[in-house]
Amino acid sequence: MKRKTREYEQLKGEWEARASPEDLDFIRSNVLKDVLRTDRTHPYYAGSDDNPHLTALHDLLTTYAVTHPQISYCQGMSDIASPILAVMDNEAHAFICFCGIMKRLEGNFQVDGEVMSVKFSHLKLLLRHSDPEFYSYLLSRGADDLFFCYRWLLLELKREFAFEDALRMLEVTWSSFPPDPPRRKWMLIIFLGRSTLEQPGFTLCWPLSLLLVNT
């Protein structure tokens, strides 16, 4: 780990050499916008904007973006990195773990959307098999594209739980062998979807795919 830590510090020192000033400013600006609103209610990230943990989160995400230009930085990556840093409590170690997780999740952030499309297909098939009543309801409302699950799939359900609960859930999810997702995660997504629609006063009044396209 000492060697890896030294390698990370070296990579941090190569930002300017690996990216043009314009690209680096763009990356850092996008990263900072997300970092300043990620898990700020949790004690680890709470307080003023100069919290050193926010700086660490910003730096590891910027380093990842600069050293992985084919992916760079996309909105939502801060949600993946945040729990890792909070658990590791070490910027270099968190960067190493984040890189490992991103080997598994980088497809979520690809521009072509191919991996996300496959995930939607898998979820749709499982929903039709495990909860045909719920699927029929979504079909009748024109929401069988399941686009309302987009954030759940993109961020591994991280935002749908309190921080400490999310840590336990992510540990289970990320400890499974890739590329096959654990069935429990897919069933949990279906449960969340049905629970949301069954809340008093909730009405699915138009195809959510149209809402996504028009925003």
UniProtKB/TrEMBL annotation:
GO molecular function, one term: GTPase activator activity
Annotated PROSITE patterns: TBC_RABGAP
Residue span, Rab-GAP TBC domain: 1-177
Coiled coil regions, renumbered to chain: none
SUPFAM superfamilies tied to this protein: Ypt/Rab-GAP domain of gyp1p (SSF47923)
Keyword annotations: GTPase activation
One GO process term, biological-process aspect: regulation of autophagosome maturation
Presence of the UniProt keyword Nucleotide-binding in the record: no
Cellular component, GO annotation: autophagosome
Keyword Transport in annotation: no
Protein name: Rab-GAP TBC domain-containing protein
Source organism of the structure: Podarcis muralis
